[in-house]
Please model this.
Amino acid sequence: MSQSTGCKMPDILRTDDGKERRVGIEIELSGLGYDALVNLMARFLGTEPDLQSRYVTKLDTDLGSFTIELDSDPIKDLDLTDERLPDTIRELGGQAMEVIDAAAERVVPLEIITPPIPFSEVPRIEALSDKLREEGALGSREAIYYAFGLQLNPELPDLKPATLVRYFQAFAALYEWLKSRHQLDISRKFTTYIEPWSSRYTDLLMEDDYAPDQEQLMRDYLEYNPTRNRALDLLPLFAHLDSELLGQYVDDPRIKSRPTLHYRLPDCDIDNPSWHFSSVWNDWVILEQIASDASQLAELRRLFREKSKINLHNLTHSWLDTAAEWLHSRGYV
Model:
């Protein structure tokens, strides 16, 4: 990863109703015990922790409520008084929980979930990431069984179909480039990157005359991608737009309705001194800038459509090569 240059901002910082855009961020990590992470976060945020359950803690701040949790529902919800548990487990009581805790904190990621914070406050997440690394947080490269991720949930400027199409097109064009920048070599060997969109869908999406209304936009996507397992997961957005229509394709209680995109990065390299949250954020800002520039987006879409043609350029350049060269030539990187 390149050295930090600070968190840049896209040109469009406000929604169509004049409010500053916000983003929710989720960070997975290990290397710290649950209590140690809670205490570190409380000190950093200048607040007191509020334990909700065994492995779920809330921290109220001026930005909203942060959540610290163990990223495993069966463990964080475990109750030794639950009669459904085997007698041997319940009888062992606290000793059993100590064993479970030790194992869980070793192989299950801890997760920091921010509230939706204004774009202008994103640099505070950079400072938080640096502090976590200083205190011993570990990311994906530490062991082969770590595949910790980082998730961005940016609020959109508006929810008009034409705006959504531009963001989707920019992501489809930049997917391979983003993948190359944010998946570690070690995790490539042992895990797969979160799935891309169906190629049949991206072929439809990238056509010059693609201008669906909201219903058609949703149906086109869901016909080819009826799953949460996508690098840019649109199901939370669609649940917000039309939950009834979404329910015709996907029935999953884990889908949370929100007027945002849900971008899942494959790795969190937080223990690497040369890794910076701003590198992840600034790559997203590049996507934002292209999505809001009609001529740049049109040019990138044209190149994307031409990548399947048989010619000398395509025989000697992958789409990743072409996209990277184009971004460099336009001054994005």
User: Anything to note?
Assistant: Strands lie at 22-29, 49-53, 56-61, 64-70, 110-113, 117-118, 150-154, 232-233, 262-265. The chain has 14 helices and nine strands.
